[in-house]
Amino acid sequence: MRDWFKKGEHWIWFSASTVSISVVLVFGLLAMISYKGLIHFWPHDVYHIEVKHQNGEKEVIVGEMHDSKMKEIEDPNAPHGKAEIPQYLIKTGNRDVYGIDFRWVSSADVVGGVDTLEKDVVVIERYEYGNVYGHIQSITVDGKTVTDPVKALAMLEEQVEKGTELHDEIKYIEKIEIGAINYKIEGLRLEEKRLRAGGDFTDKDAARLDAERKEYQEDFDKHHKNAQALYQQADTLGEVVLSIAGNKSLTVPVKKIVHFWQPNNLNFGERIGFFFSAVKNFLLDDPREANTEGGVFPAIIGTVTMVMLMAVFVTPMGVIAAIYMSEYAREGVVLKMVRISINNLAGVPSIVFGIFGLGFFVYIIGSSIDELFYSYALPSPTFGSPGLLWASLTMALLTLPVVIVSTQEGLSRIPRSLREGGLALGATKSETIMRIILPMTVPAIMTGLILAIARAAGEVAPLMLVGVVKLAPELPLDMVAPFVHLDRKFMHLGFHIYDVGFQSPNVEASQPLVYATSLLLVLIILTLNLGAIMIRNKLREKYKSLDN
């Protein structure tokens, strides 16, 4: 045993066990997030639960079983005078009727158990007020009322499909076509202010701007008229009456229905189809109901756009700094202090970078840009307020030490003979670096970029100060020139998780979305990293012979 310790083999086993525990913890965390995130999209069965209150009154609860936990109650027959019984979290929906759509039910109050399925129950997802759980009583379309359940269900499916098409058309007109026109009209207003501020505004300019405004206004009126016509068509889709728990009826206009389903009647194949449809809606829809419902499409676009811009900014800055320190700067006290500062910079809390970005980029640089180039738009700021550009630059500074250190490590591994060979063949030092040294360092640069992307995509604190918002009316990336709008605020998946998980008024409804969004953020980071890893591996194979 003493020889075993002297050989140091115990450290090998200790390191291996520590790595094994870390791997198990990481995969366990990913498994938990995946399960809790994906189960949100699976169609849950709806149960019929009868509850008897202490006053003897009975109540019927219809809803989905979302969670359960043990509750401690007084029990004189128990060994310590207390016993634990299960209680269940039921999603009852119908928020506009009951006021809440989640409630806890104690098993002590349940009559007959909680395993009775509600036959033929219909679940309706609405654009407002959440889900409805009930049975179809009738549907009325164009003054014609159908009460037969089978015919009413078929008619409802047809009308909801029409409503979805109308909603998509209205959304396209309002957000894309009318949004582009409003952007152009605002551009004309700012152009007129700029010309007037510079004293260059002429009658010819006034006539041109008026003609363009008239043209845009005509297009606006045409699209607005089309949207109003679609709204009127949506009003004619009819309404459906449902009987809900508590012997109550609820009338739901078809135009407010996102989609509906009968979870207890679905077979396994239909449940699989529902699952993938729900995932697609989550990825492509906009958030609703204070971000507790709907999708995360704007947050996906904002996250990916910000990370890509950050990579564009941080890569040249980090590579140039590393090349200067490794190839040009003389060894000395100053260079040592710079390297120490860079290493220490990696340990600075991220919120400090956010404060720096707000103070330096937004208030100093952004305000100066507004005064120099956009003074005609003041007091409305253009770049003097948080936006995509400043968020990307702030995250670039946050991840800069990682890229610098990784690039320096790559430069240090290049044999000195390659440098001398390039110089011996008549190349200048800069040519040797650009054509021989730097290409061989690209794998190390990509390694630093991978680490930078992973950190930037998950940071929240600094982004809250320099551009991320709860809900952005416009995407930072669209089909209107200049296509990437650096001055716009944007949504971010990390901030979306924080907002839904800790700022939501409906905690129970937000929990599944927190896990689903967290899983999506992890997948996006993995996708970006895998792309960078593939590029790095190809370059590593390309220069492998030179390394040897």
Structural summary, described in words:
The chain has 548 residues and is of the alpha+beta class. The protein folds into three domains: 46-119, Roll (SH3 type barrels), CATH 2.30.30; 157-236; 297-547, Orthogonal Bundle (MetI-like fold), CATH 1.10.3720. The protein is built from 16 helices and 13 strands. Strands 6, 7, 8, 9, 10 and 11 form a six-stranded antiparallel beta sheet that branches. The chain has a five-stranded antiparallel beta sheet with strand order 4-3-2-1-5, with no helix packed on it. Strand 6 and strand 7 (131-141) form a beta hairpin. Helix 10 (388-412) crosses helix 12 (429-458). The chain starts with a helix and ends with a helix. The model has no long low-confidence stretch (mean pLDDT 87).
- Computed CA radius of gyration, to the nearest angstrom: 31 Å
How many alpha or pi helices?
Answer: 16
The geometry reads as flat
Series of H and E elements: HHEEEHEEEEEHHEEEHEEHHHHHHHHHH
Name the assembly state: single chain
**Count the strands?**
13
Report the CATH topology name of the largest domain.
Answer: MetI-like fold
Q: List the domain count as a whole number.
A: 3
Mean pLDDT, to the nearest integer, reads: 87
Structural class estimated from helices and strands: alpha+beta
| Unreliable residue runs | none
